[in-house]
Amino acid sequence: MEEMLVHSVVAVGIALLFFYLGFVQRVTGRRRKEAQQHLVAERHIRDMWSPRLSGFSLQMFAHLANSAFGQFCLMPLLLRLNHFDLLRTLSIPEDPIFLPVVPPEERKGDSEQKPPLKILQELMEPRDSPPPAPAGFRFNGIRDYADSYRSGRLTPSQVAQNIIHALEDSEKSNPPLRTIVQWNRDHILRMAEASTARYRNKTPLSLLDGIPVCLKEEIKVVPYYHRAGTAYLGTEPEVEDATVTRRLREAGAVIIGVSNMHELGTGTTGCNPNRFHGIARNPCNPQHYTGGSSSGSAAAVAAGLCPLALGTDGGGSVRIPAAFCGVVGLKGTFGRISDHGSLPLSYSTVSLGPITTCVLDAAMAYSLLAGPDPQYPYGLNQPAPSLDRIFSPDLKGLTLGVDWTFSKACHAEILEIYEKAVAYLRHLGASVVDISIPELEAISVAHVICIMSEMRDCLHSDFNNHYHEMNLETRTSLALASQFTAVDYIHANRQRSRSMAWLKEIFSTVNCILTPATACTAPCIHDSDLLHGCSDIPTVAQSIRYMQLGNLTGIPGLVVPIGYSSAGLPIGLQS
């Protein structure tokens, strides 16, 4: 009886395998014919296909995905259904570019621009009078803290005590906020007391002196554990700061701890159920995700714990959580801010950037953190940052490009508010012109191949030695990543070369490109996500849609809040 059952199972398996192979052959043959004109005409934005998985279904899928059946049948099918094999059907003649480093170009009128250091010094001067009280809610920004310190209304030590109380309260709330996952009272107070003494002696180090700051757990910060969202990395306290951490310390910032993140940066929701982290909650609505992977950084700023946080962005990981939490997120140009001391998950797509309460704070943080670092070769030849016209509300002379076909690939509520924001920018004097960004689906696929292949390479040893300590979603993502070949990776970088050339042509006529920040608002947290996490590829596709172009080609991206949905969730614009 048992032998008959085994034979029956084998027979069914073989039948399913032959059905699968025939299905793949038909689909692949049809798509090869359809793809021949893709490089000229293809602009369709497809949603990815995969059911939302959590709980037992995710456990089963993670197990199957990493089995022989999963690697030879299930994952290749998922790859084809989501068109990740698109580049295999194309012939791309351009030589591959493996790092999107762009040689600096001389700016027009540089001699007339005021140096950033001079502008920052002016910002450190006390304002004649505090800004008028707003009619509604307003975040306290970096200059608000600095003005309070200089006037003596507050000291960094007092602010640090308040933050410590807030951190304690946030963990007692139901549900816990889970923004800062590692912090130390003594370290916070020691930095704050040193800053208080400097203000007392009228010798602040910079505009960031005494400013509360947190950094994503992917970035090394002494003396915390460099876990990068996992339960197995960082078994000993860190003994060396990352370059950005060191620059923040040299500027006098008060580091209040390291922030939560999606495990190993492998997702865009911020769902991380492991024992050291838990799921960061969106301060706008705790029943919704923050976005990821820099989930805790955005939530900390949105919750008012600090006006500045740092994140890393390989696929929207600064900009997505900033958009979902209603704050400002800046992904710098590739190589602008040193990545030294950050876990090297993806070396060609990742840029560091600040998450702040306003654009001015993002510009100030960016100008202090950007600059060459001998330990980070990709940014050695960068020009000096520019803060020219930072205080000017007049947008005359700026040309903004909008690809309306691309921009309309989002929820109706988002599109409505986005259109109003574009009209407002036109009202401020900007010229808005229609543009067409070619080969959008190829760009999306190329980015997925680049970031997932590089992450699979970086995590090869972890996958072999710590597989059962990884979250289920991470296991399924790496199972899919293992489907990409060296040829896929080269084709993706050929597409990168091609897309960078297209962008150079577009930027010869416009100053920047506008899109919605995300195609959806912050997704809801399901009860079944809390224990084992979730895998939600369609939501990932919608959240990452407008992010991938910047990560593949290295161009910067700035997300700002522009409104709210009918459910009260933030909506953002990207430029």
UniProtKB/TrEMBL annotation:
Keywords: Membrane, Transmembrane, Transmembrane helix. GO terms for molecular function: catalytic activity. This is Fatty acid amide hydrolase-like isoform X5. The keyword Membrane applies. It comes from the Eukaryota. Belongs to the amidase family. Residues 167-574 form the Amidase domain. The chain crosses the membrane at residues 6-24, 56-79. It comes from Microcaecilia unicolor. PROSITE patterns: AMIDASES.
